[in-house]
UniProtKB/TrEMBL annotation:
Belongs to the class I-like SAM-binding methyltransferase superfamily. MenG/UbiE family. GO terms for molecular function: demethylmenaquinone methyltransferase activity. This is Demethylmenaquinone methyltransferase. It comes from Maridesulfovibrio salexigens (strain ATCC 14822 / DSM 2638 / NCIMB 8403 / VKM B-1763). The lineage of its organism: Bacteria, Pseudomonadati, Thermodesulfobacteriota, Desulfovibrionia, Desulfovibrionales. The keyword Plastid does not apply. The gene is menG.
């Protein structure tokens, strides 16, 4: 029964991102007032994949993190995986723009589900997921797959909103999240569901300590977290323990 509802959830999420893919980048930058660029920069700084490593960017969407990985670590290879092909397709055009074009072959975009990665054990020097883990159910399946495919000592860096159940900036952020953002999202994207879904999933998401505990329970070794913008967003770093 749970399995069926997780499948249905996955289909709903894929359909939704398929609908908004063309507007996703604009809305991202607009609704976060450009902060998302800095957040991804900070996340990628923490990956430390080594000079010529292989890095998975899971739920890669339109490839912003993949491109940032290559910018900070020019010699790595990036596997950009996402189960919504429209999102990857929008990102493919982006990676061919400007100076990054020379290195575009270092990003391989692959349509895949984060709950069953088409990768062998212990092959990755690092992994990222940015604003993706909140959408994946059950999260444990994703943790298990990332842990299986990381090399010992490699890092999984998660960028995600903190739980929207906490009051931030005396409730101003919560008002923005629950009232302003769904309305703005609806007006700009024309999709009434997508941006109320965003607010709903942020509210339902575990807080930073609970998420860290989940990662430890999944089998990761050292886990730490860093708040950004008063805890609106967190980066969690989970290391696969050395053997
Ligand atoms: C909010 S977007 C984030 C995209 C990008 N990482 C970013 O930072 O802008 C969430 C992405 O997660 C993807 N996603 C959700 N569930 C997934 C799953 N089970 N497997 C792979 N991708 C998934 C969606 O298709 C979507 O592209």
């Amino acid at each position: 029964m749970a399995q069926v509802s997780h499948q249905e959830h996955g289909k709903k999420v894929r359909d939704m991102f398929g609908r908004i893919a063309g507007l996703y980048d604009f809305l991202n930058h607009f609704l976060s007032a450009g902060q998302d660029i800095y957040w991804r920069y900070r996340q990628v700084k923490l990956v430390r994949p080594g000079k010529k490593g292989l890095v998975l960017d899971l739920a890669a969407g339109t490839l912003d993190v993949s491109v940032e990985l290559l910018r900070q670590y020019p010699d790595v290879k990036v596997l950009a995986m996402d189960f919504t092909h429209q999102m990857l397709a929008c990102g493919k055009n982006k990676k061919l723009e400007g100076k990054r074009a020379e290195r575009s072959e270092s990003i391989a975009a692959v349509q895949a589900d984060g709950r069953g990665l088409p990768l062998p054990d212990n092959c990755l020097d690092g992994a990222t997921i940015s604003f993706g883990i909140r959408n994946i159910l059950p999260r444990e399946d994703c943790y298990k797959e990332v842990l299986r495919t990381l090399k010992p000592g490699a890092r999984f860096c998660i960028l995600e909103f903190g739980s929207g159940s906490k009051k931030i900036w005396k409730g101003v952020y919560n008002f923005y999240l629950n009232k302003v953002l769904p309305l703005l999202g609806k007006v700009v994207s024309g999709d009434s569901g997508a941006y109320s879904y965003l607010a709903d999933t942020i509210r339902a998401f575990p807080d930073e300590r609970a998420l860290a505990e989940e990662l430890r329970e999944a089998g990761f070794g050292r886990v730490m977290f860093i708040p950004l913008l008063s805890g609106i967003v967190y980066i969690h770093v989970a290391e696969k323990a050395e053997e």
